[in-house]
Amino acid sequence: MKQSITLDKVTEYVESGAFTSSVKSLGKRTLKFNSKKFFRNILIPLFSIIVFIGVWHLGSRALFNMEADYKIEKALNERGTEAAAEIESCIKSGNIACQPNTLPSPVQVWDSFQSLIADHKAIRADKRAFVEKTAVLNEKRLAAGKEPITYTGRPSFVDQILTSLETVFAGFLLALFIAIPIGVIIGLSPTLRSSFNWLIQIFKPVSPVVWLLLVFMIVKTMTKDSNSDSAFIISFISVGLCSMWATLVNTAMGVSSVDKDYINVARVLKLGSLQKVFKVILPSSLPLIFTGLRITLSVAWMVLIAIELLAQSPGLGSFVWEEFQNGAIDSNSKIIVAMFVIGIIGFLLDRIMLTIQNMVSFNKNEGV
Amino acid sequence: MAYLELKNVNKTYGRGKESTQVLSDINLEIEEGEFVAIVGFTGSGKTTLVNLINGLLEPSSGEVLFKGKPVNGTSHERGVIFQNYSLLPWLSVGQNVYMAVKEAFPKEKKQVLHERVKEYVDMVGLTPAYHKRPKELSGGMRQRVAVARALAMNPEMIIMDEPLGALDALTRGNLQDEILNIWSKHKRTALLITNDVDEGIYMADRIIPLKPGPNATLGPEFRIDIARPRDKTDLNDNPNFKKTRNAIIEYLMDIGEQRKSVSQKEYSLPDISPKSFVA
């Protein structure tokens, strides 16, 4: 997956660079003021952010000018000088109807971010009003044995984020409950390991899109009669199936490569086989299992966007797709907002997993 | 009948052409309450021998008898102190010992077990480190935990596989004394594997050298007739000590030489004599 490689590199850069160190230095709550540290961990990252925004701004302005020139020239060639002058003045006046559609500038993105938040607030207020309005009616309906009326309005941006998080956690839990038990069993038995190996090797590199189609084939048939939300089911199962391989492989490896000394201890103490698994083998492979889970979560989040985009299930992925199809003047900047939100949430999820991993790991330095 | 008896024990790793015979024709008898040391070069098959006795390995041929019965897997009657401590890194000192105690006395109440753990951790002087993880301890402290773990199971025989090999000289001396103390208190049978002749002489009743492998086998035994408790500084002036020490070292050097001369070619040297600068 080319996409995953580039994204991995991006996270790597973020981890090795300014973000981690600044977060760490804030986390330590050092009371002494260390000017060298302050310079390296706060000023330099701030400076790099400013440079990034500056380059972005200049780039988007250059693209804007290119697009505007092209538009004017096209009008000149097709409809003559008058039309060209009209379009030029229209662009300069900032009229929405004739703005060139290209990479949005940082200011535009910030504006869309605020408008998305405002939109969210409006929708929430609307929802609350709706609930209040239908409260009495719903009670009656419930008493009469009917389904209550629910709000069916458009979800806001924040709602989409929450839906995405819900889907990714459902998928992550599915991956966890499938991959860890199978990984442990495979790790314990060399025979099973070699019989499952081909399956793992073949299914591991399969693209999320194909998983989605496979899950779609099965779930579509199975949920034919029920009126449950099949888009959600399809997307979370696909996310789980795409992302579970890292945990599966890591668990199997951790379980099969337990230090021989620990096994000898278990034998000398005459632990039963179940006790051996739970008291010696599992604890000693926990660090590797958690490394796998961390990879699984980040893969799940990455894959989720693509799957939502295709499965038409609500969430950030479909938000991006709908905005792209929408083609409104602020659609592009909303997509960029979504991009940042996706990136930041992915980063936070990874940090959370790293913290948990460090908490369970008995070798504290191994985690990073 | 001896307490522990090895009869014509052979151990071969691998099969067919690639097999190597590590131990061949090992015969050993240890009486109850005796402290025996086996001294040998590194790589001579000492650990294999220990694992045969504690039941982690099975002999390819021959018999290992413990109290007249063939050894069949590990047993709580034979406590093992491993060369590299082998503590579980995710458990604290107390938990490491508790795990062993719980296995050795499955019917006892929790409180009794905890008392026992405390007693043995205290015995090796690690009560302050009771809740620490092995990673936070020094090498000597870790080995003491291993000692406490082995002894807390109340084994009838203690098998020690180079228990002090990785420690510095000072810690080593202290732990030697501690192990001797515990041994003399409970009069358990003990088998010590070591590569240090002095350690063997200081601690054991009998020393048996292990000729280096492949095909390692036991050499003639040396009795140490020095009254206990032994004192390290006095030991140096003891004529008996010097005699035994020299005899063992000479024996070991001899087999070392033999091993070398097997593989070495004879080179003819030019016949030259030093020049005289005087004349």
Q: TL;DR?
A:
With 368 residues, chain A is mainly alpha-helical.
Q: How would you describe this structure to a colleague?
A:
- Chain A: InterPro entries: MetI-like (IPR000515), MetI-like_sf (IPR035906).
- Chain A: This is ABC transporter permease.
- Chain A: It comes from Christiangramia crocea.
- Chain A: Residues 161-353 form the ABC transmembrane type-1 domain.
- The complex is a heterodimer of chains A (368) and B (279).
- By secondary structure, chain A is mostly helical.
- Chain A contains 13 helices and no strands.
- Chain A has three domains: 2-102, no CATH class; 104-153; 155-366, MetI-like (MetI-like fold, Orthogonal Bundle).
- Chain A has helices at 2-16, 18-28, 35-79, 81-93, 106-143, 157-188, 190-203, 208-222, 230-256, 260-268, 273-311, 316-326, 331-360.
- Chain A is extended and about 95 Å long.
- Residues 1-28 and 364-368 of chain A have low confidence and may be disordered.
- Chain B has 279 residues and is an alpha/beta fold.
- Chain B folds into two domains: 1-77 and 161-177 and 189-258, Rossmann fold (3-Layer(aba) Sandwich); 84-154, no CATH class.
- Chain B contains eight helices and ten strands.
- In chain B, the strands form two sheets. In chain B, strands 6-7-8-3-9-10 form a six-stranded mixed sheet, sandwiched between helices. Chain B has a four-stranded antiparallel sheet with strand order 2-1-4-5, with helices on one face.
- The radius of gyration of chain B is 22 Å and the shape is globular.
- The N and C termini of chain B lie far apart (74 Å).
- The A-B interface holds A 261-262, 264-265, 267-271, 279-280, 283-284, 286, 362-363 and B 54, 56, 73-76, 80, 82, 84, 86, 88-90, 99-100, 103-104, 133, 135, 153.
